[in-house]
Amino acid sequence: MAKITQLTTTLLDFLSTQDKSWSLCTLSFMASFLVFFAIYIGLNRYRQPWTKAYVIAFSLFFAYKANGILMLMLPITAISSWYLTRFMMRLKRGKIRRSGLAIVILAELTPLLYYKYTDFTLEILHEILHSNFSPEKMLLPVGISFFTFQAISYTVDVYKGRYPKTAELTDYAFYLTFFPLLIAGPITRAEVLLPQVGRPREDIDSGLVYKGLWLIICGMVKKALIADYIAQYNNIVFDAPAVQSGFGDLMGVLGFSVQIYCDFSGYSDLAIGVAALMGYELKDNFNFPYQSLNLTEFWHRWHISLSTWFRDYLYIPLGGNRRGALRTYLNSFLAMIVAGLWHGASWMFVAWGVLHGIGLVVHKLCKNNGLDRIPDNTAVKAISWCLTFGYVTFAWIFFRSPDMATATTLMTNILQTTSLSDAYTFLMEYPLWIIVVLISLELHSIRGNDYSWLQDRFVHAPWLVKLGIFALVLQLAINFSQHSIQPFIYTQF
Question: Domain residues of the chain, as ranges?
Answer without folding.
Answer: 70-197, 206-286+374-492
